[in-house]
Amino acid sequence: MQENVICLFLIGYKLNKKELKRKKKRPGRKLGVKVKHGAFSLISRGTLPRKRKYLEGFLSQVRKGLIRDLGPEEQDLTTAQLILIDRVIGKLGILRCMEEYARESGVMKENDLLPPLKKNFLSWANSLRLDLQALGIDKRQAEKGRTEKDYLDSIDWGSNKD
Questions:
Q1: How many CA atoms lie within 13 A of 93 on its CB side?
Q2: Angle, vertex CA 28, rays to CA 121 and CA 38, nearest 5
Q3: Which of 10, 38, 65, 97 is close enough to 49 for a disulfide, judged by CB 3.0 to 4.6 Å?
Q4: Is 138 helix (H, G, I), strand (E, B) or coil?
């Protein structure tokens, strides 16, 4: 009797497991059809997909700019700042892959947003924003790094030729 109960329990467990798998399938997404924006190959492999290699130049320029904004040289930055900069570049790469995919495919699919924009884009963008805040980057960052003399020299005082 106890063996039958255990057997029924195990069969019920397997059926429930199948039901859970069935429920976890995403509605509207066919099996075998993958979104090809390339962002997740950047996460899993650490490299951009072939058709997005042109973003490497952009990302390296952004990295150089962040380093220049925070400390004139990479040696002047703390380890934490370097880690955050690398995370920012990774997240920016993911966002740019999604943006390029949306540019190529359009923003809407039928009457709904594209899956990467609908589910992931805002999360990645918010995470990027928080990392930039942790680094201390804001819209006045460029002004903070300048000396008073540099600032005064940049002002066009005009000429008082009468």
A1: 28
A2: 40
A3: 38
A4: coil
Task: List the domain range (segments joined by +) for residue 135.
Answer: 36-139
User: How many structural domains are present in the chain?
Assistant: 1
The answer to whether position 114 is within a domain reads yes
1 belongs to a structural domain: no
**DSSP letter for each residue of 52-71:** GTTHHHHHHHHHHHHHHHH-
Does some domain include residue 43?
A: yes
Q: Which two tokens stand for residue 139?
A: 């819209």
Instruction: In whole angstroms, give the CA distance from residue 56 to residue 48.
Output: 8
Q: How many CA atoms lie within 13 A of 73 on its CB side?
A: 2
| Each residue's pLDDT tens digit, 71-95 | 889 999 999 999 999 999 999 999 9
Lookup: tokens for 106: 């359009």
- Whether 112 is covered by a domain: the verdict is yes
Residues comprising the chain, all counted: 162
